[in-house]
Structure formats: C-alpha cells, structure tokens
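Changelog note: in this version the structure field was regenerated for every chain. One regenerated record is shown below for reference.
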Amino acid sequence: MGQSVARLVLPPLLPPGSRGEGRPVLDELVSYGDLMNRRMEDRLVAERNDHHEEEEKEEEDQKEVVKGQKTLDLNRMPPELAISVLRHLGATDLCLASCVWQQLASDNILWQGLCRSQWHYASIYESEAPIRYRNLFLQLDEGTLTFNADAEQGMRYFISRGLVADSAAEIAKFIHGTTSLARAQVRQYVEDRQEVGDHLVRLQNYTDTFLPIALRRFFAKLEAPESQGSFLQRLLEQFSVRFCQCNPSLAMSVDSVYVMCFSLILLSVDLSSPHVKNKMSKREFIRNTRGAVGAEVGRGLEEDLYGSLYDNIFLRGHIADEERPVDQGKQQFVPGYLALFL
C-alpha cells in the first residue's frame, strides 16, 4: 500500500532533471507506507487475539457450567429441596454424602425415613425421648446382621438395647414389619417361641385373596420347616384359622382349608419334582380333593374351585415359592420339607 502511494505521489513532487534531490521525499513516503502497513497488521493481529481470547473464555465458562451441573452443590439450594434430593439415597450413599454435606446428610428426618422404610415397626419408635435416628439405624442394622447369623442372639441384641420390647406381641410386630430378617432364622426363632408365631399369623391379612396366593404369602413370611412334623401341622392350622377369619363369606370350615392346603403342597411337589414321571392330572386332583374335603363345597362350585387351584400351581409354580411365572421347561427346586411328601 505504501509503495502504491509513493508511485502515485512521486511524479508531481520530482522536477525534471532532479531525481537525486527527490530521494528524501521518496524515502519518507516509503517509510510512511511501511509504517501504515505494520500498524494495520498489528491491528488485525490484536483483533484476532482478542477474538481468540473471547472464544477461550466462553469455552471455559461453558465448562464451568457443565461441571457445576455434574457436581451439584446442595449447600446453595434451599434446605427442603436438598433434603428431597438426599432422600433418594440409601444408608451407605448417605454416609458418603455426609463427607461433603455433613449437616444435610445427618438430618434426623432423613434417617428416620430410612429406619421406618426398612423396619416399619420397632418398640423404640413409641418412646417419648428424642431419638437420633442415624444411631438407631446403625443399631438396627447391627442387630439384623446378628439375627441373620443367630436368631436367638440377634433378638437378645434388639431387646437389650431397648429396640424391641420383650413381649411376644412386640416381637411379632417387629418381625412382621421388616423383610431384612432371614426367613430361615425367623422360622427357627418362631419354632422355639410358638407364642410369637401365633401373634405373627394374626397380623397377616388374607381378605379376598385366592388360597394358593395367600399360602405363598404365608410361607414368604414364615419359611416352612425342613421336616414334616407337628410344627408344619401347627403352621397350617394357624394359617387355616386366619384365612377363614379374613374370608367369612366363603363359608368354609377350617378343616376344609387345612385339607386343601395339604392338597396344594402335594400337587406342588408332584408337578415340580423331577423324580415324579407321571404327573397328576387336573381331573385326578379334582377327584382326590373332592374326596378329602367332602360335600362342604357345592357340587357346582367345586369343579371351578378345585380346577382354579390346580391351574394356579401349574402356571405359577411351587406353593413355597413367591408368586412368579415358571418356565415349564426347567426343573424346579423342591424344598427339603416338601420332598418328604414324595
């Protein structure tokens, strides 16, 4: 650009025959042109650098926003909202969160919810003294681990620390209100303290529940014994009494329900055991059950009732298992106590 200006301006400024005298003017013009070029280049470079710095700053701000979204700072949130977020965590995660948000993660309401969701009832809940639920959760968890290893020792732990009152009714309420206790240990404890079992059965509700489903629910809470003896008979008697109390409209006697329970157990073993080659047919089950129950159920109803009992076991699986579909192509496990019926 400077040279162009020099060429345009130079002829008028140089008189003929005096080119040597115009050399300083030419040099000044060329120097001025170079200076303007350098200034223009410096300006472009500065603008380019400023634009680049702005882009880098925007990228850093965006990264900060994304980082802030990934690492949510609960301390900047309203306490009610922060507690609602932490309420979705389990006990282990909540303990880890307390390393960052100590005050929020140690909130008594949070730990109260965890205690009551895992152990719906404990005698200590009724205490008028203030309770630190985080410490209570740790004690209940420790007692549960002890109970699942040794039922008698675990219950002594609960009672000695005032978590559960030493009465059959309170112990039954505690066992009924949690699924954390191992069923085998519950069965062993109830077998030694039958008065606890009596209260536990009375806490069950089988209103408008189909008999096989109610029996599965019963065995889900109280695991059946490993041997066919008086305890199994006592359990079925208690269940039959409670089932009739919850469903008076069925107008069925306790003895009839008791017999049908044994029929369902025999059918479960027959259909699920790989050792039985000739499986019981639906017609055979109806005939055998009708003969055992007698004429208590009307002739027109017994076909539908007994047929529905058979269909439930055939489709849903073993009576001692939870209510779930069964793959008929696979062999099923037969609990030890029911294998004695083979």
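Spot check on this record: The chain is about 65% helix and 0% strand. The two ends are 109 Å apart (CA to CA).
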